[in-house]
Amino acid sequence: MKLAQTLLLFLAVVGMSSCGDPSPETLRRRGDRVLEALVEELECISSKETLVASQPQLKEYFLNLSKILLELEARDELQEVPENPLGKRLKAEMARVYQIDGARELVEAAQEPARLALELDRRR
Questions:
Q1: Looking at residue 34, what is its pLDDT?
Q2: Cβ contacts of residue 30 below 8 Å, gap of 6+?
Q3: Which of 9, 26, 53, 61 could cross-link with 38 by S-S, CB 3.0 to 4.6 Å?
Q4: How much is the pLDDT for 8?
Q5: Alpha carbon 77 to chain centroid, angstroms
Q6: How far apart are alpha carbons 22 and 103 in whole angstroms?
Q7: DSSP letters for the chain
Q8: Tens digit of pLDDT for each residue in 52-86?
Q9: Number of structural domains, the chain?
Q10: Cβ 10 vs Cβ 86: under 8 Å
Q11: pTM
Q12: In the chain, % of residues over pLDDT 90
């Protein structure tokens, strides 16, 4: 669940700006697209079986979000803003999916590579 909270913080990311890097607006759009796809994937999960089938895609979304977050953190360009509708949808879908028997463990397994990447970076 900590990764989910970190991803919600990502919703608040303003972005970064330096020569050759994506603009803050580009990064916001990129993050929003990944989060939207993550929410849509979660919305399709209705059973443990569909969650198992979705695990590779969920893992990819979590990793993509962690990479963007790490890039922004490295430049000290994170800024919190009020939660938006996408963040609310993500929270609601995570809560719904967690109601499926065995889902918490499966979702956390999909989050694990992204969580480890964030943890490793923070230890540096």
A1: 95
A2: 22, 68
A3: 61
A4: 59
A5: 17
A6: 35
A7: -HHHHHHHHHTT------TTSPPHHHHHHHHHHHHHHHHHHHHT--SHHHHHHHHHHHHHHHHHHHHHHHHHHHTT--------HHHHHHHHHHHHHHTSTTHHHHHHHHHHHHHHHHHHHHH-
A8: 999 999 999 999 999 888 887 766 667 676 778 99
A9: 1
A10: no
A11: 0.79
A12: 52
Angle of helix 48-74 relative to helix 2-10, nearest 10 degrees, comes to 50
Containing structural domain, residue 39: 2-123
Q: What does residue 110 show for φ and ψ, rounded to 5 degrees?
A: -70, -30
Report residue 11 as tokens: 């919703």
Query: Tokens representing 34?
Result: 């990944």
At 84 the pLDDT is 85
Amino acid at 49: E
User: Cα–Cα distance between 44 and 34 in angstroms, integer?
Assistant: 16
